[in-house]
């Protein structure tokens, strides 16, 4: 790890003096105890630009061995103003966050990247680097895994309280010891595999709301909440609210729509949520929205009025059948996802007007027939099509993204029998994955025209035109 980070620091340095300055740095002369941070890692951190140092320190809020997700980390940075630059819009700030993440990755501060190159990807941080993040975070960012620990946290503005042995009353008592200027509170990062739920009840959340009026980020995922207090609307500075896997919550207060600064709202896994707040259109700053709901139809003049949305996902909306018109207003939308919407019979109307849409993900929508329309976006870069038994061929409308599509994955489409003749016209296609499409017997002619293709993966598909495959591989 020391070699990697030091090498990442030096590889772009072409002047001898830069290498000499690293060699002669005073940090190598410091006395080194067994559990101290490695000098090479400390030096790599010291050489970071100031804007990256605080973003790296923010990572100390996550537990060791946690698998970070790029969008979630960037939203945390945004919520706490770590990406602020003068005269930059929110859309530009998200791009800046991606640049920061890529820079930390190039300097080997993150490892084990999965899905790199896609809009959504994950990664880990080595334990030694996590120790470094804890060290540089000092008292501003505190990962509290033992509330009985006497470490200084009274002045912290960002905390993750992950003491699973601490009861609700003890946690509330602990919250009263924290500074009133708290900006970040995380109660869970669990993926749900080890623990069924986190014991976060209404009184604990009410304590957070009444005590910390400057909160920007509140993470309540995997809690046992049945209701969310209407006083949530008093958190005027809140940018990020995560209610993921709140399986018992049935209703959100309409007052949540008064959170005019809220940028991220995550409701995935809220399987008992009966409906979205009726005035959701008032959340004018919302950029990232993930929905699970029991509704069959969404309210009119709702989501389609939220013109600032950049990421919109419908996750396990089992009863949802169709959408209202007006989707063409979402001109800032970059990512759109439908997953486990088993009653869905049609997609959004007006998708061809979504000129910024780059990522489209459609998975396990059993009743969805994509062939009934040609209303598709024309600027897609990534397209996932999974588990669509109604699909027999790709829609003609997807040809509109022939110049932009870079990643195409088709999987578990049991009735897909043929690929379109225009598939070789995808001039930008770099990755083609076809998995478990057992009726698909051949590729179209002319596949050797895919000169940008770098990866071809086929599992459980039986191709007969072997000459085309060989020619393609030679190309």
Quickly describe the structure:
By secondary structure, the chain is α/β, with parallel strands linked by helices. The protein has helices at residues 2-10, 16-23, 39-46, 50-58, 70-79, 90-106, 127-137, 168-175, 202-211, 466-474; strands spanning 68-69, 111-114, 122-124, 141-144, 158-161, 184-186, 217-219, 240-242, 264-266, 288-291, 311-315, 335-339, 359-363, 382-386, 407-411, 431-435, 455-459. It is globular.
Key phrases:
single chain, 475 residues, alpha/beta, Arc Repressor Mutant, subunit A, three-stranded antiparallel sheet, 10 helices
SSE topology:
Layout: H1 2-10, H2 16-23, H3 39-46, H4 50-58, E1 68-69, H5 70-79, H6 90-106, E2 111-114, E3 122-124, H7 127-137, E4 141-144, E5 158-161, H8 168-175, E6 184-186, H9 202-211, E7 217-219, E8 240-242, E9 264-266, E10 288-291, E11 311-315, E12 335-339, E13 359-363, E14 382-386, E15 407-411, E16 431-435, E17 455-459, H10 466-474
Parallel strand pairs: 4-5, 5-6, 6-7, 7-8, 8-9, 9-10, 10-11, 11-12, 12-13, 13-14, 14-15, 15-16, 16-17
Antiparallel strand pairs: 1-3, 2-3
Helix pairs in contact: 1-3, 4-7, 5-6, 8-9
Largest sheet: 14 strands, parallel
In what order do the strands lie side by side in the largest sheet?
4-5-6-7-8-9-10-11-12-13-14-15-16-17
CATH topology (fold) name of the domain at 2-131: Arc Repressor Mutant, subunit A
The percent range for strand residues is: 5-15%
Computed over alpha carbons, the radius of gyration is: 25 Å
Total helices: the number is: 10
Shape: globular
Element order: H for helix, E for strand: HHHHEHHEEHEEHEHEEEEEEEEEEEH
Task: State the low-pLDDT regions, or none.
Answer: 193-197
Helix content: 10-25%
Give the name of the CATH superfamily of the domain at 2-131: Winged helix-like DNA-binding domain superfamily/Winged helix DNA-binding domain
Q: What is the CATH domain class of the domain at 2-131?
A: Mainly Alpha
What is the β-strand count? 17
Whole-number average pLDDT? 86
Kindly name the structural category. alpha/beta
End-to-end span in angstroms? 38 Å
Q: What's the architecture of the domain at 2-131, going by CATH?
A: Orthogonal Bundle
């Amino acid at each position: 790890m020391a070699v990697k980070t030091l090498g990442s620091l030096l590889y772009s340095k072409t002047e001898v003096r830069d290498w000499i300055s690293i060699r002669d740095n005073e940090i190598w002369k410091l006395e080194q105890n067994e559990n101290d941070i490695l000098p090479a890692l400390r030096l790599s951190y010291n050489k970071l630009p100031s804007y990256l140092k605080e973003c790296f320190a923010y990572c100390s809020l996550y537990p060791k061995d946690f698998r970070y997700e790029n969008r979630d980390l960037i939203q945390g940075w945004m919520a706490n103003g770590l990406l602020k630059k003068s005269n930059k819009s929110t859309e530009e700030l998200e791009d800046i966050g991606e640049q920061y993440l890529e820079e930390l990755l190039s300097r080997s501060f993150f490892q084990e990247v999965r899905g790199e190159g896609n809009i959504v990807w994950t990664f880990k941080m080595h334990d030694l680097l996590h120790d470094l993040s804890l060290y540089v975070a000092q008292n501003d960012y505190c990962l509290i895994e033992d509330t009985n620990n006497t470490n200084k946290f009274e002045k912290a503005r960002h905390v993750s309280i992950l003491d699973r042995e601490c009861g609700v009353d003890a946690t509330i008592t602990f919250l009263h010891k924290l500074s009133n200027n708290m900006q970040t509170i995380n109660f869970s990062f669990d993926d749900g595999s080890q623990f069924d739920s986190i014991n976060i009840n209404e009184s604990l959340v009410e304590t957070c709301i009444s005590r910390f009026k400057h909160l920007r980020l509140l993470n309540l995922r995997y809690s046992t909440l049945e209701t969310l207090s209407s006083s949530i609307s008093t958190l005027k500075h809140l940018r990020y609210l995560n209610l993921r896997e709140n399986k018992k919550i049935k209703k959100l207060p309409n007052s949540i729509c008064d959170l005019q600064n809220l940028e991220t709202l995550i409701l995935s896994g809220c399987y008992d949520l009966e409906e979205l707040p009726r005035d959701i259109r008032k959340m004018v700053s919302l950029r990232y929205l993930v929905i699970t709901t029991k509704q069959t139809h969404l309210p009119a003049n709702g989501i389609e009025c939220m013109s600032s949305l950049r990421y919109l996902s419908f996750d396990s909306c089992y009863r949802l059948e169709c959408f209202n018109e007006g989707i063409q207003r979402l001109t800032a939308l970059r990512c759109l996802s439908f997953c486990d919407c088993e009653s869905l019979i049609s997609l959004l109307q007006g998708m061809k007007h979504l000129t910024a849409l780059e990522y489209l993900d459609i998975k396990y929508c059993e009743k969805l027939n994509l062939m009934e329309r040609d209303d598709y976006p024309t600027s897609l870069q990534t397209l996932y099509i999974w588990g669509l038994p109604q699909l027999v061929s790709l829609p003609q409308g997807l040809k509109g993204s022939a110049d932009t599509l870079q990643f195409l994955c088709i999987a578990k489409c049991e009735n897909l029998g043929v690929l379109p003749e225009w598939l070789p016209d995808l001039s930008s296609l770099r990755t083609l994955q076809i998995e478990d499409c057992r009726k698909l017997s051949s590729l179209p002619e002319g596949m050797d025209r895919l000169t940008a293709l770098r990866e071809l993966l086929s599992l459980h598909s039986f191709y007969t035109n072997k000459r085309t495959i060989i020619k393609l591989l030679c190309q």
